[in-house]
């Protein structure tokens, strides 16, 4: 197989809102500059700094006195609860500029990607994308990626910031990385399509879930708009030239119903939608079968068994895994990660990986892994919080119905 050139860079920033989000297309040394003149909290140890969304937000408040390098905020002035509910009811803008974007070029680019991931990349139509898993030889999940087959002779890949170094190391085995660019934003929410359509010449009604186009967005040319999301709502992710990320974010935030949203709302929204967070709910010790992600395996790939860890993963498909990812609901104190899950006889049967009070449902929700014998929906288990035991019900996910858009 001839090597495929890879382009990594920081010239583009991903932007998001619920409907859409923002993030860089793969910059390794990108910092987000700006300050917010409002109550805010920042995630400790965040690998990337807050940039264009923070800057756009503080400009709208008239605060130009700071230029500090900030981490991604947990929330902006509205607070977590209000931001979460606003996303479900209207539209929010998320900074996803910390997420690397990669372009994979070359005659063998599809074969190259399929040597790394479990998905059927060859079957993707032009402009179509898919969630797929990069696996290791033990069947573990190295990262979860979105791979899009663009009409510009390359594959467009969005991965997790925390996995950037190891993803690049794996790709370097067969590829030749060189600088490229972009920053991301994500917008999401019931009114996302109406808000964004005002700044598009293309008809958003023709763009289905997991499809993308390259277009002008509110006067900013060369933006890649992908209809996807991490909240369960209809959303888009926009990869925008980094030098115009603040400009685009400001234009979106000028719409009164569009609020900036931070990491806290992102986490509770994705948990309500039953979506995994890499490092919490999936990692290199978790297989697709255990995580309930077998749907990411293409039918042809299952037959060919030509992806890393195929023998182990396909054995679990036939024999069933010993543990499974499940959803849990409860009342009482919130269920947090690392909480022990106990069976009917009080013995440990699993562990919580994500959990929080659900703003939409008014009760506690969580996900975690339990022994397969206790994974059926409707099973009553127990969680141990602050040395006290509380009943928890195995519940089907998503907890809140998803609103992904499919064009008619």
Automatic annotation (TrEMBL):
Subcellular location(s) of the protein: Mitochondrion
Annotated EC: 2.1.2.10
Coiled-coil annotated residue ranges, if any: none
SUPFAM superfamilies linked to this entry: Aminomethyltransferase beta-barrel domain (SSF101790), Folate-binding domain (SSF103025)
Gene Ontology cellular-component terms listed: glycine cleavage complex; mitochondrion
Enzyme class, spelled out: transferase
A Pfam family of this chain: GCV_T_C
Endpoints of the signal sequence: none
Example GO biological process: glycine catabolic process
Source taxon at top rank: Eukaryota
Domain Aminomethyltransferase C-terminal residues, every copy: 323-400
Catalytic activity: N(6)-[(R)-S(8)-aminomethyldihydrolipoyl]-L-lysyl-[protein] + (6S)-5,6,7,8-tetrahydrofolate = N(6)-[(R)-dihydrolipoyl]-L-lysyl-[protein] + (6R)-5,10-methylene-5,6,7,8-tetrahydrofolate + NH4(+)
Swiss-Prot/TrEMBL keywords: Aminotransferase, Mitochondrion, Transferase, Transit peptide
GO MF annotation list: aminomethyltransferase activity; transaminase activity
Binding site for substrate: 237
Residue ranges annotated for the GCVT N-terminal domain, each copy included: 71-298
Subunit structure: The glycine cleavage system is composed of four proteins: P, T, L and H.
Function (record text): The glycine cleavage system catalyzes the degradation of glycine.
Record family assignment: Belongs to the GcvT family.
Protein name, entry field: Aminomethyltransferase
Organism: Athene cunicularia
Gene of this entry: AMT
């Amino acid at each position: 197989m001839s090597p495929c050139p890879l382009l990594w860079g920081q010239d583009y920033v991903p932007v998001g809102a619920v409907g859409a989000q923002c993030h860089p297309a793969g910059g390794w040394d990108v910092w987000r500059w700006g300050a917010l003149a409002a109550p805010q909290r920042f995630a400790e140890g965040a690998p990337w700094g807050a940039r264009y969304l923070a800057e756009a937000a503080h400009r709208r408040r008239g605060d130009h006195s700071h230029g500090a390098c900030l981490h991604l905020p947990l929330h902006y002035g509205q607070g977590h609860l209000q931001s979460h509910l606003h996303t479900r009811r209207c539209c929010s803008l998320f900074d996803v500029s910390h997420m690397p974007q990669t372009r994979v070029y070359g005659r063998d680019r599809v074969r190259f990607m399929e040597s790394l991931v479990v998905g059927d990349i060859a079957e993707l139509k032009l402009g179509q994308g898919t969630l797929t898993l990069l696996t290791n030889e033990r069947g573990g999940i190295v990262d979860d990626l979105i791979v899009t087959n663009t009409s510009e002779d390359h594959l467009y890949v969005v991965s997790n910031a925390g996995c950037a170094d190891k993803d690049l190391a794996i790709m370097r085995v067969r590829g030749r990385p060189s600088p490229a660019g972009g920053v991301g934003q994500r917008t999401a929410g019931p009114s996302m399509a109406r808000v964004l359509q005002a700044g598009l010449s293309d008809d958003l009604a023709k763009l289905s879930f997991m499809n993308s186009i390259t277009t002008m967005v509110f006067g900013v040319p060369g933006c890649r708009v992908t209809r996807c999301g991490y909240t369960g709502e209809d959303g888009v992710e926009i990869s925008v030239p980094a030098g115009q990320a603040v400009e685009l974010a400001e234009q979106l935030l000028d719409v009164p119903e569009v609020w900036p949203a931070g990491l806290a709302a992102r986490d509770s929204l994705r948990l309500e939608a039953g979506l995994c967070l890499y490092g919490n709910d999936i990692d290199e010790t978790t297989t697709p079968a255990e995580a309930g992600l077998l749907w990411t395996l293409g039918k042809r790939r299952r037959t060919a068994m030509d992806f890393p860890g195929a023998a182990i993963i396909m054995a679990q498909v036939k024999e069933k895994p010993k543990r499974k990812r499940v959803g849990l609901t409860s009342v009482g104190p919130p269920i947090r990660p690392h909480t022990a899950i106990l069976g009917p006889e009080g013995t440990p049967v699993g562990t919580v990986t994500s959990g929080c009070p659900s703003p939409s449902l008014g009760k506690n929700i969580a996900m975690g892994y339990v022994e397969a014998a206790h994974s059926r929906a409707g099973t009553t288990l127990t969680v141990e919080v602050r040395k006290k035991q509380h009943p928890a019900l195995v519940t089907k996910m998503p907890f809140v119905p998803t609103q992904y858009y499919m064009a008619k």
